[in-house]
Amino acid sequence: MRKLPLFALAAACFFATGFTDCDDFHTVVVPARDTAPPIAFAGVYAGGEYVASTIAEEGVTYHHPGAPQVAVSVAYDIGGARRVTMEHQSSFRCCDASVCSASQPFLASGPSDTQAGGVGAHVSDGNYVFTIVNLPRCPAGTTLRSFWYQWRTIAEDFHGNTRTSPFMTMVYP
């Protein structure tokens, strides 16, 4: 079994090849039995490199530098990663000289990708989705004082085993 060197290339691979066709993902045969859940993680791809991830069992906070960032959700399973889904939420606060207003966060389903297949099929062992995170724009006369964007990954294999990653959080400033 290979370790997960795919962190650094997940988002870059999509731009070149698509959600499951990446050099760090491999074709595997879906086994007849699989009781282990897939690996699920969330991360940030910025400036040509993978800069933060929730591969550990705890959440991570990343400080958004102001330029667009790539939020990535990855599913990996040695018996094939069937589906990856990103759930996300965000909030921001805009202020003028004396009054601030804040958006209300709610958890929403984001991008998702599913590959076809079943027992005996040749499939990819990895699957991922991403979204670009930009800073929000405040109404005229107000200034962005704070922003956070939070997401997690739900990974599923071909036998219905699932795992949800801890939340990854971007904060600004």
Please describe what this structure looks like.
It is a single chain. This protein has 173 residues and is mainly beta. The protein is 5% helix and 50% strand. It has one helix and 13 strands; from the N terminus they run αβββββββββββββ. Strands 4, 6, 7, 8, 11, 12 and 13 form a seven-stranded mixed β-sheet that branches. The chain has a four-stranded antiparallel β-sheet with strand order 3-2-5-10, with helices on one face.
Based on the model shown, name its key terms.
single chain, 173 residues, disordered N terminus, mainly beta, four-stranded antiparallel beta sheet, seven-stranded mixed beta sheet
What is the element layout, followed by pairings?
Layout: H1 10-17, E1 27-29, E2 39-46, E3 49-53, E4 60-63, E5 69-76, E6 81-95, E7 100-102, E8 108-114, E9 122-124, E10 126-133, E11 143-157, E12 162-164, E13 168-172
Parallel strand pairs: 4-13
Antiparallel strand pairs: 1-9, 2-3, 2-5, 5-10, 6-7, 6-8, 6-11, 11-12, 11-13
What spatial form do the alpha-carbon principal axes imply? Answer: elongated
**Count of helical regions:** 1
Please tell me the overall pLDDT.
Answer: 85
Instruction: State the helicity in percent bands.
Output: under 10%
Question: Structural class, from helix and strand content?
Answer: mainly beta
Got a strand count?
13
Beta-strand content estimate:
over 45%
How many whole angstroms does the radius of gyration measure?
18 Å
Give the H and E element order: HEEEEEEEEEEEEE
Q: Major sheet, described briefly?
A: 7 strands, mixed
Q: Please give the alpha-carbon distance between the first and last residues.
A: 40 Å
**Residue ranges: pLDDT <50 for 5 or more in a row?**
1-21
